[in-house]
Amino acid sequence: MDTEGLQVAEKALWVFLLHLVLAFLFVAILYTLFVSADSDPLVKGSTPVYRFSSLQSAAVLLFFLVLSLSILLSETTTLFPFPSEFFFFVASAGFALHSSTLRSSSTVTSGIQGKCEFLASNVSAATAALALVLACNPRIFVADLALGASVCLQGLWVLQTGLSLYVEAFIPEGCHRLLDVAYGVEGSTTCDLEDSRLRALALLDLVFVFHVIFVLVVVVAAYALAVKFVGIRRFGSYEALPTSSLSEGNHVQMKSLVKEMQP
Q1: In the chain, where does DSSP find H-type helix?
Q2: Nearest to 29 by CA among 56, 69, 68, 3
């Protein structure tokens, strides 16, 4: 496949992924709004803090929905002719908002849920910092690679959070799901003893480290496969050459030109 055909295929894949992201974000917003309006306090909770945190999550998801839609329109139409730096800056603001929301929610909740949200807020903060770096200089390959890895880590940690909070087989020993949150209890799990709670928090830290190692291995393996089968396109260095080297090169070229002009 030639270079032009490869670029067309990459753009088609990118547009397809944007449509997929928009669909998932829309479903997530509907689900969050539905859960926040559920009136069954024995299953999902209906306290004011729970409802406000759910609405906060829906607002953050709406932010990313608008951002994804803007990127899609920029790729397929001429309505948003913004450079990539602008979208990286907006994405950085969105991840910073997501981190702030998770951090404030972790201070309200306690136990396993608060720990999961605190770790997720750190990942979001790192993602926001990487997106800001790319907004300043999109050509930094390491930051671009790290941004993709951090987004993957966020997805894996959301999955782990759901398993640790709502699946009995993954809830740490000595902890169990709450059956009644109608009286201001803002957590989905609780631990009977202090030792069990500390053990569960330490176990979450260990699992988070395993997730980081797994993402790192996957990113390195994917990069190695891409280098092996696709290769690296080298565009040269962006640094300016030393003045002495430029002068010497010009001098050699002028001497060659003079010799050719001589009879």
Answers
A1: 3-36, 48-76, 84-108, 111-136, 141-166, 194-229, 243-261
A2: 56
Q: Checking DSSP bridges between strand 189-191 and strand 175-177, what pairing results, if any?
A: antiparallel
Lowest mean per-residue pLDDT among 36-45, 147-156, 203-212, 248-257: 248-257
Write the single-letter amino acid at 182: A
R_g over Cα of the chain: 25
Mean residue pLDDT across the chain: 78
The single residue listed with the structure tokens 């306090």 is 41
Half-sphere exposure of 137 toward its Cβ, with a 13 Å CA cutoff?
6
**Average pLDDT in the 249-259 region?**
45
| CB neighbours of residue 96 within 10 Å | 17
Give the list of residues 6+ apart from residue 160 with CB closer than 8 angstroms, or none.
Answer: 116, 207, 208, 211
* Calpha distance 201→116 (Å, rounded): 9
Residue with tokens 């390491």: 142
Beta carbons of 192 and 174 less than 8 angstroms apart? yes
Q: Two tokens at 38?
A: 């559920």
**DSSP per-residue string spanning 145-202:** HHHHHHHHHHHHHHHHHHHHHH-GGGSPTTEEE-S--TTS---SEEESSHHHHHHHHH
Distance CA 97, CA 89 (A): 12
Beta bridge partners of 174: none
- C-alpha 178/C-alpha 169 separation (Å) is 15
> What is the CA 36 to chain-centroid distance, rounded?
24
Task: State whether residue 103 is helix, strand or coil.
Answer: helix
Tell me how far apart the alpha carbons of residues 260 and 262 are, in angstroms, rounded to a whole number: 6
